[in-house]
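note to self — DONT lose this again. spent like an hour looking for the file last time. sequence + predicted structure for the chain T wanted, 320 res
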Amino acid sequence: METTHVPADELRRALIAADPKLSKFNPLPRILAFDEFNTGTHGWCELIGNHDGHGNLDTVDVHMRDFRPPQISSCDFFDIGTHGAMSGNYALKVATRPVTGHTAVAIRRLTMAQRGVVQFETYFTYKSEAVTEESSLGNSFGDVVWDGNLHPSEAQFGAFTVATDLCDGDGIRYHCVARYQNTDLENRFTRRWVYPVVPEPTPRENLYNQENLTPTEDFTAPNPEDWHALDEEPQFLCYNEVPTKVNWHYLRWQFDTRTRTNIELQVNDRIMDMRDVPVPQYPDKYDGLENLLNFYVSVRTHSPVRNFLFLDSALISVDW
């Protein structure tokens, strides 16, 4: 009998293609984590600032005390009941408070075994909270007037962010960041991808000034002028008219920890080259963070309405 040898890469692709849970992703050769939130939170938790050796939570930076824990959600709404997720009943839900400027953050903590290309993939959706007659802000908001198609809740959604917190073995710390800005601070549609040109403030920098930032300031880059557009073309995502219709979007993001640079961002059918996007480093080295490989997602409301970011599932892979 003749023996047929299938190349390892070809066999790997075939196995992924045959798995309904993995075939919707396009992973690099090694999968580090596959988080299907129908089965739990998989280590995604609330980001909180640092506290002192006494465990005194009053020493946490003021702006980092209320980033809200992520929830497992069946995507329930007042009009239809349970919507459910893309891959099952439950999704990971990151929810702000109904306070203009509030941010909610969920983080996933890993470390690097080697340097190389890292890829984060997810299926996500974003929504403003559905209102009732008692809590409604009316039929117009921002630059939207309800016309049976465009809905004011779409203008009530601010922004969501995918980001990392990375640190080399020699203490060089930096963040790769991409944000979808749906509206500006005046609730006008921008629908563009942006990135920060400064590193985000850290507890060490604010050690003697925990009230340096307020709870509603943008913790990733507080000054709006420090956010630059990835390109000038907006990306229109499927909000689908009302806040109780959920459509899932594909996101794939690559960066390289060898060169400390971004590579590219794909959202649905659009691929954006990020190799020229600057990745600012902290001027001082950080101890105790060797090989840090953290991922976080955040959602920020620009209105007095709760904003939600839902993740159906996420996959982290590398070329190591």
